[in-house]
Amino acid sequence: MKVILADTAGFCFGVKRAVDMVYGENEKGEKKVYTYGPIIHNEQVVSDLEKKGVVAINDIAELDSLPKGTIIIRSHGVSEDVYDKLVNSGFEVVDATCPFVKKIHKAVNEYSKKGYEIIITGNANHPEVCGIVGWGDKAHITVISDAKEAEALNFPKGTNVCVVSQTTFNHKKFQDLVEIVDKKEYNMFVLNTICNATEERQREAASISSNVDAMIVIGGRNSSNTQKLFEICKKECENTYYIQTLEDLNIRDTGSIGIVGITAGASTPNNIIEEVQKYVRNEL
Ligand code: F3S
Q: Closest Cα to atom 2, ligand 1: which residue?
């Protein structure tokens, strides 16, 4: 069977870097390794790390009762307050914050110090956004996620305003919200901090699925970015399968299939993608 595997299938750069850092630190075997929150939303990876002795903590207070070791900050990043507490905890800190997220922390910190109002487009409850908020003056940071919230901004005309975005926010929505804010006649500085990884993965999935006889989308059932990938592929290729692992794969009517496309959500580990790819190539 001919297989087209998407280059963008699976982990984005920032998540791959963070997961590699956890495995790397653990393999050194020098210190007990902890992650601040699960390193990734993928059960297989988290349980594999658990088996290897890596412990995910959810609160800094937990560190008080744990043997000293290395604590790893995940790709979403953390607030300045949490960062400082971790640094002062007596644990060695390995910062796996995605460099694209770090860039937002720096901008928020800088413009906050200059006295700007900071506007973040994104989901206020997402850990990445909670972290970003924590790098500026909270009293002068507003998170907006839709046109209504953008319309409701009521700083005086001429106010210095810096607009940044959660990395996974939708491009079009960002532009629309910036347009609304722009009409308010602020002195606006816009930093488009949206990461292209998701968009590129979706674009490639659409292009591959429009040229194959069957398309396989691999990812967790609750992963919203995998669901979105599935929808995109299904539109282009009726014969699209959504699987979590190889065990779920049940391709019908293989006789009429010549080319199979494969893509995977952002938190799907490489070994699962490889396994599916090998099976389709050699066994179907
Ligand atoms: Fe991934 Fe970093 Fe972009 S974590 S989605 S490469 S911002």
A: 14
- Where the chain has pLDDT below 70, the residues are none
Token pair for 245: 């692992």
Output the ligand 1 site: residues, CB below 6 A.
12-15, 75, 98, 100-101, 167-168, 195, 197-198
Q: Whose CA is nearest to atom 5 of ligand 1?
A: 197
Task: Point out which residues pair with 56 in neighbouring strands.
Answer: 35
Identify which of 247, 185, 237 has the alpha carbon closest to the alpha carbon of residue 206: 237
Q: Which residue type occupies 154?
A: N
Rounded distance between C-alpha atoms, residue 68 and residue 140, angstroms: 37
- Phi, psi (deg, nearest 5) at residue 26: -70, -40
Cα 198 to averaged position of ligand 1 atoms, centre (Å): 8
Q: What are phi and psi of 41, to 5 degrees?
A: -85, 65
d(CA 216, CA 226): 11
Closest CA to 8 of 171, 204, 168: 204
pTM, full prediction: 0.85
Please name the residue whose Cα sits nearest to atom 6 of ligand 1.
Answer: 14
Alpha helices (H) in 31-184, listed in sequence order:
43-51, 80-87, 99-113, 127-133, 147-151, 171-182
